[in-house]
Amino acid sequence: MTDAASHRQPLFDGLDRLKLGVFHMNCTRGATPSTAEGTISPLDWGQQVRIARLAEDAGLDAFIPIARWRGYGGPSGFNDEQYEPIPWAAGLSALTERIAVFATAHVPLIHPVRLAKEVATIDHISGGRFCLNVVAGWNKRELDMFGVDLVPQEERYEVAAEWTSFLERLWAEDEEFDVAGKYFRAERVLSAPKPIQRPRVPIMSAGSSPAGIAFAAAHADICFAAANSPEDLQPLVARIKEAAAERGRTVSVWTQAGVLCGETEAEATRRYEHVVREQGDLEAVTNQMTMLMGGDSRTLDFALDPAMLERMVAMQHAYQLFGTPEQIVKEMQQLADIGIDGLALMWPDYERGISEFRDQVLPLAVQAGLRAGAQVQR
């Protein structure tokens, strides 16, 4: 992707084989439903700023928040407090200098005219480092809080495509125009100023279904692909990139990964045991999985299987980068070899985890050719 890149946008500077972002840090406990020490609780802006500055100083490439309006309870209060991603991104954009800053927007909950202005504003605050993560909408419990109906699954990406096209016109066109689509109607619309990044800011989306892949191929610059092994990820990565190529486009493919590092494998295992098995909040993940399944008894038994619940405690069933620094870099190398372009990283303790990642993992990633290293001017 080149058309959304600017001289300030680190995600498309071509310096690194594997881009690295910080994911899921804007809610209580982050991505780890556990009462272990170091997990984010309570939510505190000062801590968010410390994490942001640690990540930027370490040379990481992006912050990616989730959009959440209610959490999952349990002893950990998992995700019960949430910083809304748009003002969160504006704040961190003003306090950083190099790193890309995302906001996450749920299509049913924000009108394109409003979002176009907010995006342009943050892109100016950041000097051209802003990115938008587009979510088609799936959480009925949250949508009910807004009095918004959940669109049938087969239509969600159709709505998202029209919504995104509306946004793109607002960022690109200098004259008033009317919209008369299936889902959106508006008269004499206009938005100014435009984003610094022209013709638009980079867009991320997620989805491994045919509809999700088609949306990413048409509208996204980055697509999230989720799986738990290189063998499962490789065909999905290929399908996403092939779908984009058929449209004459290039889409970077990222996956989310939980990081738990130890100087020895035994130390990493002890930390896993403590965070996940000793302090893990099974009540919160049971609530989460019940909500995700919508009470569907056909899938709920699988979702509430003890092994599945443990994987959800272990940073939301993400790809696991657990072990020694050497083992973690080997896994990162395998992911890059199958076509993964970036990792959205999560830690139980973000401050400790990013510091260890900077000191122990990144030097080895530079040696492996995955990262350009601190000596490169970013």
Describe, in plain words, how this protein is organized in 3D:
There is one protein chain. This protein is of the alpha/beta class. The protein has a single domain, classed as TIM Barrel (Alpha-Beta Barrel), CATH 3.20.20. Helices cover 43% and strands 15% of the residues. The strands form two sheets. An eight-stranded parallel beta barrel has the order 1-2-3-4-7-8-9-11, surrounded by eight helices. The N terminus is likely disordered. One of its GO terms (biological process) is alkanesulfonate catabolic process.
Question: What is this entry, summarized?
Answer:
By secondary structure, the chain is an alpha/beta fold. Helix content is 43%, strand content 15%.
- Helix/sheet category: alpha/beta
Q: Major sheet: size, sense and barrel closure?
A: 8 strands, parallel, barrel
Question: Strands of the largest sheet, in order across it?
Answer: 1-2-3-4-7-8-9-11
| Count of β-strands | 11
One letter per element, helices H and strands E, the order comes to EHEHEHEHHEEEHEHEHHHHEHEH
Any idea what the radius of gyration is? Answer: 20 Å
At the first level of CATH, what is the class? Alpha Beta
- Which homologous superfamily in CATH is the superfamily? Luciferase-like domain
Distance linking N and C termini? 19 Å
Query: Helix content range of the residues, please?
Result: 40-55%
Mean residue pLDDT: 93
Query: What would the CATH topology be?
Result: TIM Barrel
Discrete helix count: 13
CATH architecture: Alpha-Beta Barrel
Number of domains: 1
Report the portion of residues in β strands: 15-25%
Shape: globular
Report low-confidence residues grouped into runs of 5 or more.
1-6
